Amino acid sequence: MTRARLRAGLIGLGAMGRNHARVLAALDGVELVGIVDPAGDPTSALRVPVVPDLDGLLAIGVDYAVVACPTALHEQVGLALAASGVPALIEKPLAQSVAAASRLVEAFEAAGLVAGVGHIERYNPALQSLRLRLEAGELGEVFQVVTRRQGPFPHRIADVGVVMDLATHDIDLTSWVVGREYRTVSARTVSRSGRLHEDMVAAVGQLAGGAMVNHLVNWLSPLKERSTVVTGERGCFVADTLTADLTWYANGAIDTEWEALRAFRGVAEGDMVRYAIPKREPLLVEHERFRDAVDGKQSDIVTLRQGLRTVRVAAALLQSAAEGSTVAIDTDLAPVAAATVALS
């Protein structure tokens, strides 16, 4: 007997919400049965009922919901879903504050519900391949992780600044890809676009084990860049998440005959390899993983506790920028590795 498809609901039809709607409408084993959007239905081609509020979606009946409304509404919507017994995939960041994120974690855990955070970079093919190679020891000891994430200002973002919006990508992927938690951070921010929130951040920090991190994130550049560079004892990996390319730069293995240079214990340029890796859409993979988790199968998802950890680090960056200080990160958090969820 064929099992009925899971009934999914979507909350929010902004730029990201429309992408979620596109994927949900074609996702195997899932039927998109309702969308919440107070402004109406800009995607009528989906032929899915659009209701003005969450009560209308709950009346339709859903097995799980995807929350893609503005960050400021995540707590309100998430708590209502938890109270109604509905599993939820909540877009990143989990919430706009540590307190709000903590309340969401507590609510879903108390209800015993599957819940995840949409940190989509974890499903980027380049970063998936990079993490596997680091786990296999191909780089050796990790010395440094450097990320650059910049581009034009997105006018759709109004409730949080670049730290909570864009930098949370880099915080989550850095911890996840190297399997280490943040220990300290220091940051500087500026606001040049006339908005209430910051639109540029430069941050440095340290992970457990001593690896350095550096993040440059802004909404002030016409150049769109998404780069992660992990340097270690055997060379460095460069992941371009715009193109999903992963390139390996090996340390040189040829001895230097020049005596003056030999005295410097550095490295020389070696082989360079750009890997051929399968490239599936990260958003589709994210939805497949969450669907499987809701369906009671083992599946790697970004848990709410991991989302809380990311919000905590982002809040520390903002605190550091405001105080001009280095901020230590609370280490009493869930493990970094992606959770495997299996429910009966």
TrEMBL record:
<feature type="domain" description="Gfo/Idh/MocA-like oxidoreductase N-terminal">
    <location>
        <begin position="7"/>
        <end position="119"/>
    </location>
</feature>
<dbReference type="Pfam" id="PF02894">
    <property type="entry name" value="GFO_IDH_MocA_C"/>
</dbReference>
<dbReference type="InterPro" id="IPR004104">
    <property type="entry name" value="Gfo/Idh/MocA-like_OxRdtase_C"/>
</dbReference>
<protein>
    <submittedName>
        <fullName>Predicted dehydrogenase</fullName>
    </submittedName>
</protein>
<dbReference type="InterPro" id="IPR036291">
    <property type="entry name" value="NAD(P)-bd_dom_sf"/>
</dbReference>
<dbReference type="InterPro" id="IPR000683">
    <property type="entry name" value="Gfo/Idh/MocA-like_OxRdtase_N"/>
</dbReference>
<comment type="similarity">
    <text>Belongs to the Gfo/Idh/MocA family.</text>
</comment>
<feature type="domain" description="Gfo/Idh/MocA-like oxidoreductase C-terminal">
    <location>
        <begin position="134"/>
        <end position="329"/>
    </location>
</feature>
<dbReference type="Pfam" id="PF01408">
    <property type="entry name" value="GFO_IDH_MocA"/>
</dbReference>
<dbReference type="GO" id="GO:0000166">
    <property type="term" value="F:nucleotide binding"/>
</dbReference>
<dbReference type="InterPro" id="IPR051450">
    <property type="entry name" value="Gfo/Idh/MocA_Oxidoreductases"/>
</dbReference>
